[in-house]
Design goal:
By secondary structure, the protein is an alpha/beta fold. The protein has helices at about 15-25, 45-55, 75-90, 110-115, 165, 200-210, 215-225, and strands at about 1-5, 30-35, 60-65, 95-100, 105, 120-130, 135-140, 140-150, 175, 190-195, 240. It has a single domain, classed as Spore Coat Polysaccharide Biosynthesis Protein SpsA, Chain A, CATH 3.90.550. Helix 1 (about 15-25) packs parallel to helix 2 (about 45-55) and helix 6 (about 200-210) runs antiparallel to helix 7 (about 215-225).
Length: about 250
């Protein structure tokens, strides 16, 4: 009933198995499009790429789709959307779940989905945000992950459209004023671990991801790891609570 399309590069290797474990609880099909290069044009790590393929192929309901990075004039946003389009084109199910590898669903997803699947066409999830360690959970929630019926999913392959812009045009898109899509208990179902990394992993991320030019990430990371975590992050300036590491990340 649900096809998961997992946005992946080896930058997110540490989250891959945990995400696949969770997705396998809810999805009978998992598609992982992987580019031959990072989306800034740097070649992928071939050793880690093969390790990633081995992990993905160990799940009976998961498969890899490789695609080329072939035009340096195109922005990373183009390749992010191309990845999602390639997954959409071959997905077999009515419902498509788009997540990044560092966005992990909790077990509350399935009872929630069973309660809403006949209501709207698309949903954008509330997520918990973490920084440095999976026990540091921000006091403010964000939005991440998208669930939509395949018939409404038409990816625009250009440099300007992000996924949220695309999904605002879907009939009965559930978004509202902030991020209202939560579990039956009223809590977020998505956990966003994008910045839960060692110093070296963070540096690799910011040198190769689609937002490399947004800030002086390297200087910010160097400053951050020259001291103990002070309770706020350099990405958004959120404050944090200490929580249980529920996925053992």
């Amino acid at each position: 009933m649900i096809t998961a399309i997992l946005q992946y590069s080896t930058i997110d290797y540490r989250f891959l198995k945990c995400n696949l474990d969770q997705l396998s609880k809810f999805c009978d099909e998992i598609i992982v499009p992987i580019c031959t290069h990072f989306f800034n044009g740097q070649p992928e790590d071939e050793t880690k790429l093969q390790q990633s393929k081995d992990i993905i192929n160990s799940y009976t309901n998961a498969r890899v789709i490789m695609f080329d990075w072939d035009d340096p004039s195109k922005s990373p946003r183009y390749y992010h959307n191309l990845s999602r389009k390639l997954g959409t084109d071959v997905a077999k199910n009515e419902w498509l779940l788009f997540v990044d590898t560092d966005e992990i669903l909790s077990d509350e997803f399935m009872p929630w989905f069973d309660s809403i699947k006949d209501t709207n066409n698309s949903y954008w999830f509330t997520c918990y945000w973490y920084f440095r360690n999976a026990t540091n959970q921000a006091t403010r929630v964000e939005g991440a992950g998208l669930l939509t019926k395949k018939q409404y999913c038409n990816w625009i392959l250009d440099s300007e459209h992000e996924r949220q812009q695309l999904f605002h045009r879907i009939p009965n898109f559930t978004n509202g004023h902030d991020y209202p899509v939560v579990s039956l208990t009223g809590q977020p179902m998505m956990h966003h671990f994008s910045w839960v990394r060692t110093k070296d992993e963070m540096l690799t991320k910011v040198k190769n991801w689609g937002h490399a030019s947004d800030k002086n990430w390297i200087a910010l990371i160097e400053e951050e790891f020259n001291r103990e975590f002070n309770g706020t992050d350099f990405v958004h300036g959120y404050s944090y609570n200490i929580v249980e590491n529920i996925f053992n990340i």
